[in-house]
Amino acid sequence: MKRHYRNLISVFAVLFTAGVTLCAQEAQRTDSLVWLPYNVSKPSGQTTGMMFSISPQDLSRRVSGDLRSRLVGMVPGLEVTENGGAYFGSISSNLASYAIGGGGYNINMKGFGTVVAIIDDMLVPFNQLLLEPNQIESVTVFSDVLDKSKFGPMGSNGNLYIRTHRGEYDTPLKIKTSFDSGIRLTERIPEWLSGEEYAVYNNKARLAAGYTPLYSDEDIAAFQERDPYSQTTPNVDYQSLMLKRWLPTSNLNLSLSAGSHIVKYAFALNGFHSGDIQKGSADYFYDKINYSGSVSSRIGRYIEAGASFIGLFGAYKGDRTSWNSYRSVPGIAFPLTLSTTTDDNGDEVTIFGASKVYPNNPYAATMVGGYQTKKVRSGLFQAYVDADFSWILPGLKSKTSLMTNSFVYSNIGMNHDYLAYYWDKDEGVGEISTHTGQKSTSRSLGGTAVAENLSMYEKLYFDRTFGGHTINLGTVLYLNRAFNQSETDFERYLFLVGNADWSYGNRYAVQFNAQYSGSDRFAKGSRFGFFPSIGLSWTVSNEAFMEDVKGITYLKLHAQAGTYPDRDNATGSHYLYEMVYSRASGYQYGPTSIGAASHWFGTTNRASVNTTTTQYGNPNLTWNTMRQIDAGIDLTLFGCLDLSAEYFTWDYTGNIADISGALPSVFGFSDIVAYANHSRQGTSGLITALQYHKQIGDLKLRVGASASTHNRIYKKIVSDFYSPGNEHLKKTGTSPYAVWGLDCIGRYTSEQQIQENPAYVSKDLLRTGDLMYRDVNGDGTIDDNDRMVIGNTTPKLRYGVYLGLEYKGFDFEVVGTGRWGGEIELNSDYFFNGWGTGNYSAFVKDEMYPNLSYAKSSNNFVMSSYWLTKQNWFKIQAFDVGYTFRLDKSLKEVRLDIKGENLLTLTKVKYIDPEAPDAGVTARPLMRVFTAGVSLNF
Amino acid sequence: MKTRLLHILAGGLVLLCIANGCNFLEPKLSGSYNDENYTDYPQVVRGLVEHAYNLRPRTYASIRYAASDALTDNAVFRSESNANRLYSIGSGSLGDSPFSSVWSNEYTGIYYCNLFLKDDLGYNTRYYLDAGADELFRKCLQGDAYALRAWYYYSLLQHFGGEGTDGVLYGVPLVTEAIQLSEVDPAKLTRATFDATVEQILSDCEKAYDLLPYNNRDYPTDPTFAVPVVGSVRYTMMDQVSVDGLRAMVYLLWASPAFNPNGDKTRYQKAAEYAAKVIRHKLEVEGPMGFDPTKGFTWRDGNSPEAIFPSTTYSTSTYETTFYPIGFGGSADYSPSQDLVDAFPMANGYPITDPRSGYDPNAPYVGRDARFYADILYDGSEIIRDGTDEVMYTIESHEGGKDGPKLTGTSRTGYYIKKFLYSGWNSYDSNVLSNVSVVFFERWEQMCLIFAEAASEFLGSAENASLGYSAKEVLGWVRARPTTDGTPGITVDPYLDECAASPTLFRNLVRNEWRITTCFEGTRYFDLRRWGENLNVPVHGAVITLSEDGTPSYGNTVLETKNYPSPWHPIPVGDIRRCPNLVQNAGWANWR
User: Fold this and answer.
1) Does B79 touch chain A (CB under 8 A)?
2) Are B490 and B482 in contact (CB under 8 A)?
3) Alpha carbons A26 and A40: distance in angstroms, whole number
4) Which end of chain B has the least Cβ crowding within 10 Å, N or C?
5) Where residue A490 falls among pLDDT bands split at 50, 70, 90?
6) Closest to A40 (Cα-Cα) out of A140, A156, A178, A123
7) B50: nearest CB among A578, A608, A664
């Protein structure tokens, strides 16, 4: 019997490492503590939701740069998608947005909108702080309804609840410092044709459209010389001249904390530096300094108070042109430089090439065209007082906290112009172009932004444990006021959360939470909403009858259900409930004065006034309602195999939408917007995770996998009209991520086929090889009524894998993520190009490219099932190899390590990155990182 | 003690928050006119009615007026793929109807009138400091709101009234209140019957009549004359005379065979009475002021005495660029058919089918009615610059000519529209002149025709005692009227006398006069339907071939055959889909 068990386990182990996702974290177990909203810690036997904790140590094992990139594959259900190699995007003007996404990352859970980070119980725009691991005490990730509801409407999309490091009482001074440095390499950048290839294909395109080709065979042979300075047949490789393949990166962290019995403090200072992929007139860089300090103290027996400050300085110096301007002109457009001249001051000035067809020289624009410097300053100050009222009633306590956050961004640069003359293949150098070499003498302002936030909360609560029962009752009053000048917007909300929890003996737990929230987005009388939720859990393994069951070390069943409001739906414009009138001048009444007028009856005239209603009022506009149910099971078998699974379903109704499209024009609603709580969307899905951990002598092994699946569908939208026979146009029931387009059934193989079948454009424009579409509704024509759902950008399965090993002082971990199912749209300008004077991408050479022609084919380049490909991919996202020396001196620990990120991509998708289809095309290319570092703990 | 103090402070903070919480969520003032403050601004309130006026069309060169004749046998669209043309020959695509914008435009106008009338808001607002002026103005605006609402309902009824798929004679949905968003229930929206819609229009006209001034002109002897408020300053808005004109139009529509299943002749009587009232006003009140029915008028004059109820004006050359052939700078979007040309009688008043007319098929453009030369450009006609003798362009629409059929930008029929054109426009000029565009919603000749039709149906053509005028006399004025350049009309009219003796002949004569007098004014489409005439007829164009020595020979060919599934216009698909209980018009059951 035991052998069978062991075989079973080894089979499982093999299966699991073979391809399921791994999660780096264990789901919570009975004895582990979870950090919950408002600085409350509970053993997991008293919680009723699925929660995962991330420790700062786990975060510090990932490549530095941005906290979001460290979260990839960390936690089951937390989907981190990289859209572009862009932590440079962290310095931008729209950082006032609360979403943690942006800067090149999308972070979502359970199909909701972007996750928010709640830092020390305050909703702070994450991009304004960019915390480093040594400033973090704990991170709890949760997305179940009751857990989110404790934060009122703030956390509707799922939360990263981050507590910052404040030190500990009664601990000696701890100093930690680390330094790492390495390189970032650009990953794939989809190629564009070299100059001589462009000439060959351009000739083909022109011939196909009936034009004469421009480049003779001698020209093409001369282009192969690849001389960028040739004044007759230039061929410039802009990419190698303008982009770097790698850039340096380094990071320094320092933190210290200590505490006596009465006072504790913690300070941290972090610096980050990296270069930029664009070559330019100066060295471009990205620098970030993070600093924080926190002091807390116990005052008397009943009070603890503290204050903390977290600040950020960031600076980015980069080019004024977009990184992908290198491919805006073909290599053979004009010579790189024509000659030199001297300007009024006697300095030598290069004359760059340009042409009437391509009037901009991208190389000149980056080398001579100036730069921009973006700076941010941000600071968060928080003060809190915790009071113990046990002299009134044992167990009664209060927490009060006040936070203010401010952020300033500016973009200042120099806008120089370069000097360029027109050049023509046949006529040589011509006249001066529109770029006259004007050097700017003063700095120019590219943009500014300011944001401020003020929040405070007061929590009054009662905790008691008696006879195995634990009771927690609490109420929180929370106010938030935010002002974001970059979005010229302000937001206020206020909520009251009450909770009542009961648990018994770490076996049973019942939680009840009620939220009463109000927002300034609604009219008086409709501002507030009441949203209750309830949670239940049963830790079966702690029951007496489970003691004899071998194999099941841990078993917990949990479920939560409830409603709550969605903050994202209430952060649109203000005053949507108002009836808005606007006034303008109208036509003239009275006798006309134009033309051959006869004023036989009077001359007085006047202008009329036009009053229009631009928005129809709805004073009943209020919060939408999200209903969510989560039910899950946590299981540990044989002490080494952990399993978690959670099924969830959520649905939001009464989404604020402009319903004027659904209203009959009989009521006069033609040119008006009218907002009402109308739409519905919903989804359900599953998150699963497994982990196998085993210790064999000195070797500790952990292997994990997680998988999640969910989709989202429209259940009610504003005007879903379709005529009979066109049921495929029905949008209700489809996904918001569905791809709509024509159904391509192949390519025309003969003229006869063109004549026999209905076509999307007039038949005299079609040639064999063009795309053929299906007449879905059978009406004999192919038009927009034949568009249907051809795919979905949501994957059917998202998975992650993890492998960790520890042996004596060595540790190793590797993390991979992947997707299966779903489609990618191939319609970026990497695929849709090849006509007119634009540059050609390497896709033009592919056999999948439909007929190349100088005249853009309006038949081929429309969204259809031809331009979709399967989204299946797997990436090794991160690895870390380290060795720790433990010493007995004041220096306690030294660890050396090598880290990497974005290491390997396995996919059948060609040309573009399947996770980030725009990376390397419009968004910056993804970067592969290798760093080596040392960290010292004193 | 310290702790107690701190506790009290904390508690106080909490109470402060709760107390402030009520105001904490109050947003800043939006700064826009909204429901709470707009009644404080008289300009905004009066702007509701004035905006409703501004929704009226200002040009004849659109599908609502001139182009609608191309939906009938009067004219033909040049482009074979024109969506409106496809609609008229039965191959239109679902949802593409020529008048769907009329539905939303008129209902928007009604909505603004309802907003103004809601709880007598407009009537109770103070507009002028001077109490007398304010009193007058408030009444005028209130009357305007009712009158405009009646006007828009009439327009909707004319376009969309008809027999539903369930056989009931329907009008349009009646909305007389500006409704709250929360009360909108598309399922409750149904079409009122035709009769009920007419009742609504007439009741609004009643209310308007009691409030509006008599006529929007400055009469020097008029004792109620008050400069800034009534008088010519209100020209292009409604007055009692135009309300009477509207009543005449409504009664005539209601009396017409298609909408009068019981043959109720009193409707004709009312139409004739109101038309007579307006005619009397024009002759007796405006006569001494400058209105002369024996003089011609010009279309491009916003202050023309012809007008009873005009639109506002603007300067444009759209008529020229739409009607002229490409050789002269236009695009000939639609042009007159051979059938319309054949409807014009000869100068002696006899129709061309009558042997007494003297019509010569080999010289069909010689000796025709004056209105033919004023309205139609034919092969060989010259475009002469306004006020001079300069010939700017000669139309050559015979086969092979530069304006002939089968070329780009030329008419398929061999004729071009001349009506409305301003002859001072020439796109080849260095300084191209343009002229005023105005729409006469109610005009003199139209009232005469209404009277002629109504009185003859009700009384007979020669009887004049009860109304003061006889149908025959009034029709004679129309036929005798000179055209713009002074060319006299049919002054000696034996054919009219002959027709007056027979009701059938007179009816046909009246219908033909409607056709040729109001061609391209957007009446033919609706006239055919209210008379119950056959719509699905072939439409002809001219075929003019020149022989070797240049003599033309005239023939004609069928260009297309109209094909309508029913006489009624479909209700726009958008509202049919949104309102499950809205009945579509017969013949268009698959438009949903």
Assistant:
1) no
2) no
3) 20
4) N
5) confident
6) A140
7) A608
Mutate to test the interface with A, among B15, B110, B137, B184 (most CBs of A within 10 A): B184
Instruction: Tell me, letter by letter, the H, E, C secondary structure of B229-271.
Output: CCCHHHCCCCCHHHHHHHHHHHHHHHHCHHHCCCCCCHHHHHH
Question: What pLDDT is attached to residue A692?
Answer: 93
User: What rounded mean pLDDT belongs to chain B?
Assistant: 90
In chain A, domain spans: 32-164
Q: How high is the pLDDT of residue A595?
A: 56
Of A100-104, A191-195, B85-89, B305-309, the one with minimum mean pLDDT is: A100-104
Q: Tokens at residue A564, please?
A: 């709550």
3-state secondary structure of A740: strand
Confirm or reject contact between B221 and chain A (CB < 8 A): no
B56–chain A nearest CA distance, Å? 11
Would you state the pLDDT for residue B288? 84
Average pLDDT over residues B93-107: 90
Nearest to B17 among A479, A663, A671 (CB): A479
- For A579, which of B7, B34, B301 is closest by C-beta distance? B34
Mean pLDDT value of segment B140-164:
95
Please say if the pLDDT value at position A332 is more than 80: yes
Homologous superfamily of the A32-164 domain (CATH): TonB-dependent receptor, plug domain (2.170.130.10)
Q: Which of A577, A598, A611, A785 to mutate to test the interface with B (most CBs of B within 10 A)?
A: A611
**Cβ contact B303–A663 (<8 Å):** no
Question: A916, A797, A822: which is closest to A77 by C-alpha?
Answer: A797
Top mean-pLDDT range of A463-477, A593-607, A901-915: A901-915
B189, two tokens: 């929206």
DSSP three-state, residue A243? strand
Q: Write down the pLDDT at residue A69.
A: 84
Is residue A447 within 8 Å of A91, Cβ to Cβ? Answer: no
In sequence order, the β-bridge partners of residue A163 are: A138
Instruction: Tell me which chain A residues have a C-beta less than 8 angstroms from the C-beta of B592.
Output: 723-724
Phi and psi at A606, nearest 5°, equal -155, 160
Q: Which residue of A has its CA nearest to B301?
A: A597
Which residues, 6 or more positions from A841, have their beta carbon under 8 angstroms from its beta carbon? Answer: A190, A191, A192, A193, A327, A829, A830, A831, A833, A834
One-letter identity of residue A91: I
Write the residue in B46, B302, B578 that is nearest to A664 by C-beta: B578
pTM: predicted TM-score of the whole model, two decimal places: 0.83
Tell whether B7 is within 8 A of chain A (Cβ). yes
Instruction: Give CA A313 to chain center in angstroms.
Output: 22
As for the ipTM of the complex, it is 0.84
The yes-or-no verdict on residue A21 having pLDDT over 70 is no
B/e letters for A55-72, b = 16+ CB within 10 Å, e = fewer, are ebebbbbbbbbbbbbbbb
Burial of B261 per CB tally in 10 Å (0-12, 13-18, 19+): exposed
Q: What is the pLDDT of residue A92?
A: 58
- For a pLDDT cut of 90, what percent of chain B falls above it? 66
User: Which of A32, A41, A122, A31 is closest to A463 using CA atoms?
Assistant: A41
Sign of the C-alpha dihedral computed for residues A18, A19, A20 and A24 taken in this order: positive
- B558/B416 Cα distance (integer angstroms): 17
| Burial label, A261 (beta-carbon count in 10 A; 0-12, 13-18, 19+) | exposed
Q: State how beta strands A699-710 and A744-747 pair.
A: unpaired
CA B98, CA B220: separation in Å to the nearest integer? 45
Asked if pLDDT for residue A91 goes beyond 60, the answer is no
CA nearest A493 in B: which residue?
Answer: B25
Q: Which residues of A touch B579 (CB under 8 A)?
A: 664, 666
Q: In this model, does residue B542 exceed pLDDT 90? A: yes
